[in-house]
Amino acid sequence: MMNNQPQELDSDSLCQLPKEELVKKIIEQAIVIGELQATINELKQEIEQIHVSRDLDSKTSS
What are phi and psi of 15, to 5 degrees? Predict the structure, then answer.
C-alpha cells in the first residue's frame, strides 16, 4: 500500500485543488481500495482454511 495513514481531506481544501490533482487523488484512492479488497479476500481465505482445519481436527480427535 502507498501509506498507512489516510490524508486529512476536507471540503474546503479539496475545492482549492486543480482538477488534475483531484483526478490523481481519485486514482490513488482506487488503487488503495483495490489493495484493501485483495487483503480482505486473502484474510477471508485464511479464516476459511482455519475453520476447515479446526473442523477436521475436532472430528479426528473425537
Answer: -65, -25
